[in-house]
Amino acid sequence: MIELVVFDMAGTTVDEDNVVYKTVRAAVNAAGYDFSQDQVQTFGAGKEKSQAIRDVLAIDGQPHTEEEVQQIFADFKQRLATAYKDLNVREQPGAKETFAALRERGIKSVLNTGYDRAMAESLVAKLGWQVGREIDALVTASDVPNNRPHPDMIHKAIELTGVSSPKAVAKVGDSKIDIEEGKNAGCGMTFGITTGAQTEAQLVEAQPTAVLNRLLELVDAVATENCSS
Predict the structure, then answer these.
(1) What's 60's domain CATH number?
(2) b/e map of 92-113 (b: 16 or more CB within 10 Å)?
(3) Which of 14, 74, 93, 214 maximizes the CB count within 10 A of its CB?
(4) What is the total count of domains within the chain?
(5) Could you tell me which NCBIfam families the record lists for this protein (predicted)?
(6) What pLDDT score was predicted for residue 18?
(7) CA 208/CA 55 separation, integer angstroms
């Protein structure tokens, strides 16, 4: 029986016009590279952002120093902060309705993200969401030792919400690494969603329970699982 859904943020519950991966690309290419947006999203989606930069740089097969990664990461953070000042951040269609529908069924909702806490909290505040109202907790990449695809953020969400076991958790996200994170945590269900960084064909490669096109589809999927449990 599902007691908790862990939601990714950017591309899944938050519509920020893909600005994160556009900014990753801008910062990397400003350092002298020429990676496409598709390459950035294929190799960087869902990851803590310095790791995303490492993995994008690795595409060309050449060695890159950690100093270079950190220089690009610092540039990325400055660019993203500037972009977010004027960006009209919106919730993905049906996000609040999904949280509310799950809450009516006694199912908790936690956001987790490859952002650090400061950036994640600024996004949540822009949306007008509050822990204890729309969501039950927020877990970020800077809260745990290991980031996706490691299960640390989901284990932290379980700890914060008092859920009985990973099998009682469903994970939903817009990238393969979200699905891998859920599987590594032992989640009872994992869902890809096509509203963000990766396509249905890419998401299917990670073998989720299902791929969704809209967040509200999650409510019936989880309810059906609980009825059959």
Answers:
(1) 1.10.150
(2) bebbbebbebbeeeebbbbbbb
(3) 14
(4) 2
(5) HAD-SF-IA-v1, PhnX-like
(6) 81
(7) 23
53 and 151 together in one domain: no
Helix (H) or strand (E) holding 89, with range, is none
Looking at residue 209, what DSSP letter applies? S
Instruction: Tell me which residue of 188, 226, 186 sits closest to 209, measured CA to CA.
Output: 188
Domain residue limits at 185: 4-16+89-228
- Check residues 65 and 83 and name the one with the higher pLDDT: 65
207 and 175 in one domain?
Answer: yes
pLDDT in tens, 25-54: 999 999 999 999 999 988 988 788 899 999
- Tens-place pLDDT, residues 173-204: 999 999 999 999 999 999 999 998 789 999 99
Instruction: Tell me how crowded residue 46 is: count the other CB atoms within 10 A of its CB.
Output: 28
195 in the same domain as 105:
yes
> What span, in angstroms and rounded, lies between the C-alpha atoms of 209 and 193?
11
* 33 shares its domain with 130: no
Which ranges in 92-135 belong to alpha helices (H)?
95-104, 117-127
- Same domain, yes or no, for 148 and 70? no
Cα separation values, 55 from 30, 60, 61, Å:
16, 10, 10
Q: Measured between alpha carbons, how far is 229 from 225 in angstroms, rounded to an integer? A: 6
pLDDT at 145 over 80: yes
Beta-strand runs (E) in 99-165: 108-113, 137-140
Residue 164 near residue 138 (C-beta atoms within 8 A): no
